[in-house]
Write a structure and sequence with these properties.
- This protein has about 90 residues and is α+β, with helices and mostly antiparallel strands.
- It has one domain: 60s Ribosomal Protein L30, Chain: A (2-Layer Sandwich), CATH 3.30.1330.40.
- It is about 35% helix and about 25% strand.
- It has helices spanning about 5-25, 45-60, and strands at about 30-40, 65-70, 80-85.
- It has a 3-stranded mixed β-sheet, covered by helices on one side.
- Helix 2 (about 45-60) links the parallel strand 1 (about 30-40) and strand 2 (about 65-70).
- Helix 1 (about 5-25) packs parallel to helix 2.
Length: about 90
Amino acid sequence: MVALGDIAEQTRRALHNMDVILERCRVALDDVAFLRILVATDRSEDLGLAWNVVREHFGSHEVPATLQGVSVLGYPGQLVELEPIATRSPR
């Protein structure tokens, strides 16, 4: 786990990891059709922090998304989890 206690940095790392997987699958960021963002928090400010990092990363691609606060995620210290759904565009 990286950046313990730092939602923004964990969000950046999760987005980086997502980009690596998308590239391996030959899928572009613009091909992400839906994104679920889970944040282990009960504070709306923390949700907003994660959302701002996601919006900055996606730029002009306004991906439909669900942003949800949860009580716990799968690994000790994990604060952020992303679940993208993407479709490969014909090239």
